[in-house]
């Protein structure tokens, strides 16, 4: 069985552009927290004429630091991996200061139609103001002087999530889809587990060996890590099915057992993550939800012969 090990060793070096290789510099925004680790990574791609991937939150100090790091260079593209506030909010300020166009899959949206309650949940993390100047299609290539990025649709954490593969090195900017410090939150209404797993399969078939994520340090042996993530999700899914077969009926009861080692402050997010799995399990006919899906719903085993 694959086991997964997370790497929480990371020096954010706030305010500094850290050289990651000949083509990439990283600057981490000072927005650390339980969901953002030490903060959001902004990546500067190329030299002379550069793209900035994920400007981060709307933090004037971080945007200033980015501009200082590229003094004398031209920002030709602003690219966002997805429209969560910690990644795309800074794009408006950076675009105003540089005149560079914004690239992304599209405005924020849910993974599926929403109930009224869910509408407010979506607003909490989503950047509802981001509109790309150029909407990217899956497989589209973005070219600057000395670099080319290919957009790879990777929905799951967010419906409009994209990863970006660099032509000049075996590097993939993996956004929040794959991170080395933690698993990714895949929670409705923004996210969808079936999409997330399909996106992992897509990446598993790709040649890049180094991932540069939206939070935390590089992932050095990315294909092995993606395989371990896949196995980890399947184990979690099996644990949820097992809890329900043993008599748990509510998400809170399942969370209390399978997340017992997770700090309580994260149990709300854990409940959403379990709901993400249950949505997928119900769709696949493995679990039933007689009264409909939801955080407070009743879940039952499906008898199989
Ligand atoms: Zn993020």
UniProtKB/TrEMBL annotation:
Q: Which residues form a coiled coil?
A: none
Gene3D superfamilies on file: Ribonuclease Z/Hydroxyacylglutathione hydrolase-like, Winged helix-like DNA-binding domain superfamily/Winged helix DNA-binding domain
Q: Where is the Metallo-beta-lactamase domain?
A: 39-215
What is this protein identified as?
Glyoxylase-like metal-dependent hydrolase (Beta-lactamase superfamily II)
* UniProt organism field: Kaistia dalseonensis
């Amino acid at each position: 069985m694959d086991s997964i090990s997370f790497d929480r060793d990371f020096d954010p070096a706030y305010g500094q552009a850290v050289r990651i290789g000949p083509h990439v510099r990283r600057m981490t925004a000072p927005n650390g927290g339980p969901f953002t680790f030490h903060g959001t990574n902004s990546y500067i791609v190329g030299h002379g004429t550069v793209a900035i991937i994920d400007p981060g939150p709307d933090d004037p100090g971080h945007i200033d630091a980015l501009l200082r790091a590229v003094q004398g260079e031209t920002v030709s593209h602003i690219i966002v991996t997805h429209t969560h506030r910690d990644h795309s909010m800074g794009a408006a300020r950076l675009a105003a200061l540089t005149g560079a166009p914004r690239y992304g899959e599209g405005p924020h949206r849910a993974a599926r139609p929403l109930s009224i309650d869910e509408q407010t949940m979506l607003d909490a993390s989503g950047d509802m103001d981001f509109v790309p100047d150029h909407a990217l299609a899956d497989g589209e290539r973005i070219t600057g002087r000395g670099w080319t990025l290919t957009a790879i649709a990777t929905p799951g954490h967010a419906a409009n999530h994209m990863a970006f593969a660099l032509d000049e090195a075996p590097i993939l900017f993996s956004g929040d889809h794959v991170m080395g410090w933690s698993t990714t939150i895949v929670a409705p209404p923004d996210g969808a587990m079936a999409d997330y797993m399909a996106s992992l399969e897509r990446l598993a078939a790709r040649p890049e060996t180094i991932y540069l994520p939206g939070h935390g340090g590089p992932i050095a042996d990315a294909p092995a890590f993606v395989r371990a993530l896949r196995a980890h999700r399947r184990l979690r899914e099996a644990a949820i099915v097992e809890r329900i077969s043993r008599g748990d009926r509510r998400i809170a009861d399942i969370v209390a057992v399978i997340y017992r080692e997770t700090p309580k402050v994260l149990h709300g997010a854990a409940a959403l993550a379990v709901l993400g799995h249950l949505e997928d399990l119900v769709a696949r006919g493995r679990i039933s939800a007689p009264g409909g899906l939801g955080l407070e719903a009743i879940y039952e085993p499906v008898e199989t012969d």
